[in-house]
Each structure stands twice: as C-alpha cells, then as structure tokens.
Amino acid sequence: MHLPKAELHLHIEGTLEPELAFALAARNGVTLPYADTEALRTAYLFEDLQSFLNLYYALMAVVRTEDDFAELADAYLARAAAQGVRHAEIFFDPQAHTARGVPLGTVVEGLGRALERSEEKHGISTQLIMCFLRDQSAESALETLEAARPHLHRISAVGLDSAEVGHPPVKFREVYERAGELGLRKVAHAGEEGPPSYIREALDVLGVERIDHGLRCMEDPDLVKRLVAERVPLTLCPLSNVRLRAVDTLEQHPLPAMLEAGLLCTVNSDDPAYFGGYVGDTFHAVHEALGLDREQLRTLARNSFEAAFLDHDEERRAR
Ligand code: ADE
Ligand code: ZN
C-alpha cells in the first residue's frame, strides 16, 4: 500500500533480514548456528514474546561496527520508502549492544550516519528513540541514559521494550523523570502481553505521550474511554501480534473494534524481518484479513502523522 505514512513502532534490530545477517556474520567472523538463510527462516516460529526475543538478541551478535549499523538502517529505509513511509521514528536497544562489548557511540553514530542521509536518499525524515530493556535493572537504564549524554543531539525520545510481564512501568520512574529533564520525549511498550494496568502506569507514572502496542486496553472499558478522550496514540503491530500469539489469527485482531471505539490507532511493523512484512505489507494484510476499506486505511495513515513527533510544518512536508 503506497499511502504516505509514518512508521512509529519499528525496532531497527528487528529489520535484520537473514541475508544481511549472514553477510555481516561472514564480515565479522561470527559463526551462526544455522546452515543458511532458509534454515534460519525456519527458526521464525514463535510461541510468545520471550521465544522471539531469544532469537532477536542472539542474532544481533553479527552487528558490530559503525558500518554494520549504518548498513542495517539504510536497508530498512530503502524498504520503507518502497512501501510509502515518509517519516520513521526508529527504536534501538543500546543495552543489547553494550552488553556484548559494542560501544554506545558505535551504535548511535552508525545509525545516525544512515539517518542523516535518509531525507535526501530515501525521502524519509527520521527520529531515533532509545529504548531501555525492561527485564534489566533500573540502574542499568539510568547508566545507559547517562552514557547517551554525548549523543543526545541524535536522540528524540526514550522508550521501554523487551519482556513485559513482571516488569511494570513503575520500575523505570526515575529514569523517565531524568529523560524528561534532559528534554527527551517519552513512549513505552505497554499492554502487549502485560495487563491494562501497565498502560495506565505508563501514562500516569512515566508520563508517556504514546503507548506502543496497547492492545490489551480493550479489556478495560474505562481505560479505552480515557485513551479516546485524551487522544493517546497507540502504535499497533498486527502482524507481530499474530506471530507472537497475542491474537490467534489476523482475522481476530481487534483493530476494527479499536477504530470503532474512536482510539487513535496507528499500524506499524515492529520487527518486520521476523514477522512477515513491512508497514505497507501490514496495511495490505489488515485490508485483506479485516476488511478495512480505503477510508479506514486513510484514517490509519493520517493518524500516523498526527501521532508522530513532528511539528506542524514538518508534518505538512512529510504528508
Ligand atoms: N523488542 C523487539 N520487539 C519487541 C516487542 N514486540 N515487544 C517488546 N520488546 C521488543
Ligand atoms: Zn515493539
């Protein structure tokens, strides 16, 4: 689908296609425990979020240098441009790299190099969102934020991702306060596998402006009313929800009911190399499986610009 759109929920590490993974493995002398790209693809059968995360973190071992990060981001931007993306707010997971000895500067400067050429090369404006891994400690998140200080000119916002259940937003109260003091905007994954109370906490305790996923708000009618009244954007990822078994089939995804309820829904690809499609593919899939008509697809595309961290002039240019 070529409607102009913004992508607001995209983990750059989740765009690592098997072909690039093998190319980087060869370049960096890393041995992957798969014979070839086909064998790797057969491992993409997930039970839940954790079973995906295990592979997602393991495969990152091949991405090591500034050039690798730049190549990864450039490959995503080229694919996104071909699917109508005009603006992308891109997550990255610094702790997943620093934990294996890759300096934060390598990650941010490598990604930054691809992003700063993106408008000219791909027609996509970009922002970078630094995510904390919620299954690691709050101290580690604070250290990461401090380590990012020299690179903050490249970073627009902080986010919260990784294994959700058992790691409520309140754990990261202090680091979000500090991020706010540093002028960063705030988002957080909530209500993907975790309960609706995590969505409330992300809003009330962390002060986030958008909820990533937010799928499980539908279990709490009062919360839905609040999200509608406050026009809190939700960055939904329907193909991810099917692959990670948050919903049984795409046909059963609550997106139509969420739109009907008046929620500010956006549609995104999350980890497209693993979940079977980039954002244009996702628009196409929800059109086919859920019967969303052109007008509803246009609403989703319009919502993505409303929910983006763009000022009015930037928004007009991107549309
Ligand atoms: N990291 C990458 N993809 C994720 C997802 N869908 N949920 C939480 N953390 C993630
Ligand atoms: Zn995500």
Automatic annotation (TrEMBL):
**Would you say which domain of life the source belongs to?**
Bacteria
Which GO-annotated molecular functions does the record name?
hydrolase activity
Q: What class of enzyme is it?
A: hydrolase
The residues listed in the UniProt record as binding Zn(2+), with positions renumbered to this chain, are H9, H11, H189, D270
- Enzyme Commission number, as recorded: 3.5.4.2
Q: Which residues bind substrate?
A: D271
**Site positions (Important for catalytic activity):** H213
Recorded catalytic reaction(s): these are: adenine + H2O + H(+) = hypoxanthine + NH4(+)
Adenosine deaminase domain location, by residue?
Answer: 4-317
Cofactors, names only: Zn(2+)
Could you tell me the keywords of this UniProt record? Hydrolase, Metal-binding, Nucleotide metabolism, Zinc
Instruction: Provide the cofactor note recorded for this chain's UniProt entry.
Output: Binds 1 zinc ion per subunit.
State the active site.
Answer: E192 (proton donor)
The family annotation for this protein states: Belongs to the metallo-dependent hydrolases superfamily. Adenosine and AMP deaminases family. Adenine deaminase type 2 subfamily.
Q: What does this protein do?
A: Catalyzes the hydrolytic deamination of adenine to hypoxanthine. Plays an important role in the purine salvage pathway and in nitrogen catabolism.
Q: PANTHER family in the record, alphabetically?
A: ADENINE DEAMINASE
The identity of this protein, by name, is: Adenine deaminase
Q: What taxonomic classification does the UniProt entry list for its organism?
A: Bacteria, Bacillati, Actinomycetota, Actinomycetes, Kitasatosporales
